Amino acid sequence: MSSIDLHNEALVIDSHNDTIVGHIRRGNVSISDRETPNRVRHDGTIAYMRGPLDSAASQMDIQINLPKMRQGGVDAAFFAIDVTRAWKNHLSYALDAIGFFKAEVETHADEIIIARTAEDIREAKAAGKLAAILVIENSDGVERSLNILKSLHHLGVRSIGLTHDPTSWAAAGNGETDSGGGLTRFGVQLVKEMNRLGMLVDVSHISERGFWDVLEIAERPVIASHSNCKALCGHPRNLTDEQIKRIAEKRRRHRFDLRDMVH
């Protein structure tokens, strides 16, 4: 079997992108291409709070849309909503992004679905459609409420990154190296409830102590959606060999970030 045939037959999944917020900030640009706004250009919490990116250079920065996914042979992708910069209300920021993306998927229902189960992904591939997995990056998006977590799950969110570089209500981020903090009491409750709901806990960006806390209590698969090998790239967000081996021993999931830099 040729490498092309293997690629075409395999289920290819991109485990992290920041496409949703990127398209909103570029004027609610459609996921079908990089030029056509489907909605009012400055509508929504994200566009209002952070402002649009209107330059020609920023338009060229968009790396993922439906044609590019098909061209690259990507069958499914984790579409993340990073709420770290929401400042005042992380939930409204997340809901704004979810609403934008759901409207996009409805507009292009013949091309893409929001997958809620693994079977949805397989069925989409068989039908010639793309699959999107909704992700919240930084668990502050649940506003310290397991009730909100359940509501986000009902809306289709299937994975949450516990933190970004700064500390969240759930865990210390990889930027909090001095405190040595790990999971908070709420973080423990969050991991357990995500396990119960069948949501993927994402340990990218978490502190090393937080990483070990998660692996100690998690009863379901954990994902490191965009982390690299620290031995090869000494960025504080990357994982040690011991961490990577532990993920393998626990039969969790680790996805390497193929870019030359991490963010």
From TrEMBL:
Species assigned in the record: Geodia barretti
Cofactor: Zn(2+)
Protein's name in the database: Dipeptidase
Lineage: Eukaryota, Metazoa, Porifera, Demospongiae, Heteroscleromorpha
Matching Gene3D superfamilies: Metal-dependent hydrolases
GO terms of biological process kind: proteolysis
This protein's GO CC annotations: side of membrane
Record-listed E.C. numbers: 3.4.13.19
Molecular function as annotated in GO: metal ion binding; metallodipeptidase activity
UniProt keyword Aminoacyl-tRNA synthetase present: no
InterPro entries: Metal_Hydrolase (IPR032466), Pept_M19 (IPR008257)
Cellular compartments annotated: Membrane
Record field: catalytic activity: an L-aminoacyl-L-amino acid + H2O = 2 an L-alpha-amino acid
Pfam families: Peptidase_M19
